[in-house]
Design a protein that fits this description.
The chain is 44% helix and 17% strand. The strands form 2 sheets. Strands 1, 2, 3, 4, 5, 6 and 13 form a 7-stranded mixed sheet that branches. The longest helix is centred in the first third of the chain and has 30 residues. It is of the alpha/beta class. It is globular, with a radius of gyration of 24 Å. The protein has 2 domains: 231 residues, no CATH class; 261 residues, Carbon-nitrogen hydrolase (Nitrilase/N-carbamoyl-D-aminoacid amidohydrolase, 4-Layer Sandwich).
């Protein structure tokens, strides 16, 4: 009975630890929380055998993902067309799948370190491997990674060198250091987080980037169109009129950005509208960037796209466009669609059969500036955004439609992820959405301007472009990998000590 009670207590504690981490992310911003929660998790799992560590890691993951991704329920419940019990079952399966990755990390850690103390600092490496797998397997779902908790936190300054993944590694090294300092009553391990804190102050100051001396005036337009109306055929023209009415009085900006699929008419059939918008932009010496659906009539392919309308005389099929590569499962493509589509409306949402654009594409050119694009979900894929950001990129631009998730914490997590990309790549970021969060941030991830949610409005601001590339943009995840590998140094040191002793 005592063993059962201890096991239950441990499971409840790990569930709570995972769930409370939601408060570390936006919009709550308790960025200090991981420095308490993660050491508790390490301390609880520290004495466990590998199999129990796997179960403990799974339990922690269920708490983490169930609370942190609970906003997904809103979209399935309102637009999925399935009963609430089925929705909960689907979410349970998703959370269980995602929880396998922390479970695997803790199992590997304890498999090697349970009886060999030198392997104790290997946890960050196994966690990194598990997270990279989570961000790649089955097209990947890298949401809610621990490093995002530090967007406004003390480790945020590490981003331009080791990126968000490196910050995650640093958090686990810190957790291990705290546990070891308490467990062995020696303060020496606490030097590790002090080193990270020092680097977080220094790293942003040593980047080979340069802010331009002249700013660009930017107008971000938020239409606030209901999702239930967005794709109705009779709403195409009213939707466009909404954006035109919001934009027309303020067209005297260098750059105007409309959100994802702001124009719901298929591009090949919208030439009259597009030419009209382009003429308005041209008269005002402006460039308008908008989301639109492209339809390749020859191959029957749809692309979630971005085009530029300016004085360069728009024509369908021109090269100055971007096509989304990283598609959202179920929302933009349905795996095993022949099997799943007949089951429920959830698997047959409007515009859920997109084709993929290239992984790496040229920047958009708009009024003399180079824009690195990411559409909605893509902004969570640091590797892809990095691959599309060059030395002469002036701005990161991401357009989205988070209307699916209502008044939940999902859109704020999405905005936080976008801010981390700005911090990693040292470029200001412009984000236009249908109903929020619409914002502009500088190259350090700080808000320049922020529009209110759930309101048809515009956001006007001036933003300075940045030339050059951060160290992270040059080396990618290698910084995080090298940092994680440093956790193996005690193993090397132990082996060398044994060799000298034998000699």
């Amino acid at each position: 009975m005592m063993k059962l009670s201890g096991s239950v207590t441990r499971s409840v504690l790990l569930l709570l630890c995972g769930a409370v981490l939601t408060l570390a992310y936006s919009p709550f911003h308790w960025h200090w929380l991981p420095f308490i929660v993660l050491p508790i998790v390490v301390g609880v799992i520290w004495p466990l055998a590998p199999k129990r560590a796997f179960r403990a890691g799974f339990t922690f993951g269920m708490g983490w993902f169930s609370a942190g991704l609970s906003w997904i329920y809103v979209s399935i419940d309102q637009y999925g067309g399935v009963p609430a019990p089925v929705t909960l079952l689907l979410l349970g399966l998703l959370f269980a799948y995602l929880s396998l990755f922390p479970a695997l990390a803790f199992w590997c850690w304890q498999k090697l370190s349970h009886r060999k103390f030198a392997w104790r600092f290997s946890l960050p490496l196994f966690w990194l491997i598990a997270e990279l797998l989570r961000g790649w397997l089955f097209t990947g779902f890298p949401w809610l990674s621990l490093g995002y908790s530090q967007t406004d936190g003390v480790f945020g300054g590490l981003a331009p060198v080791i990126g968000e993944t490196g910050i995650t590694v640093a958090l686990w090294f810190t957790a291990l250091s705290i546990v070891m300092a308490l467990r062995f009553k020696k303060p020496a391990p606490l030097l590790i987080p002090l080193i990270f804190l020092t680097c977080a102050v220094v790293f942003p100051k040593i980047q080979p980037t340069e802010r331009k001396t002249e700013s660009m005036s930017v107008l971000l337009v938020q239409g606030n169109i209901q999702q239930s109306l967005k794709w109705q055929a009779e709403q195409q023209w009213p939707n466009i009129l909404r954006y035109l009415d919001l934009t027309r009085p303020k067209f005297n900006h260098d750059l105007v950005i409309w959100p994802e699929s702001a124009i719901t008419a298929l591009e090949p059939y919208a030439s009259d509208v597009l030419n009209t918008v382009e003429q308005s932009a041209s008269i005002n010496d402006s460039a308008l960037v908008t989301g639109i659906i492209d339809y390749d009539r020859l191959n029957d392919d749809f692309y979630n796209s971005v085009i530029v309308l300016d004085n360069e005389s728009y024509s369908y099929g021109n090269a100055n466009r971007y096509q989304k590569h990283q598609l959202l499962p179920v929302g933009e493509f349905v795996p095993f669609e022949n099997l799943l589509r007949p089951l429920a409306p959830l698997f047959n949402l409007p515009m859920s059969s997109f084709s993929r654009g290239g992984y790496q594409q040229p920047n958009l050119e708009a009024n003399g500036s180079n824009l690195a694009m990411a559409i909605c979900y893509e902004i969570a894929f640091a590797g892809q955004v990095r691959s599309n950001t060059y030395d002469d990129t002036d701005y990161l631009v991401t357009i989205s439609n988070d209307t699916w998730f209502g008044d939940s914490h999902g859109p704020w997590q999405h905005m936080q992820i976008a801010r981390m990309r700005a911090m990693e790549l040292g470029k200001p970021l412009l984000r236009a959405t249908n109903n929020g969060v619409t914002a502009a941030v500088d190259e350090h991830g700080n808000y320049i301007a922020l529009a209110p949610q759930f309101k048809a409005t515009t956001l006007s601001t001036n933003v300075y472009g940045v030339l050059g590339s951060t160290i992270f943009n040059t080396i990618g995840n290698w910084g995080a990998i090298i940092l994680a590998l440093l956790g193996l140094l005690p193993i090397i040191a132990t082996k060398r000590t044994k060799k000298h002793a034998q000699a």
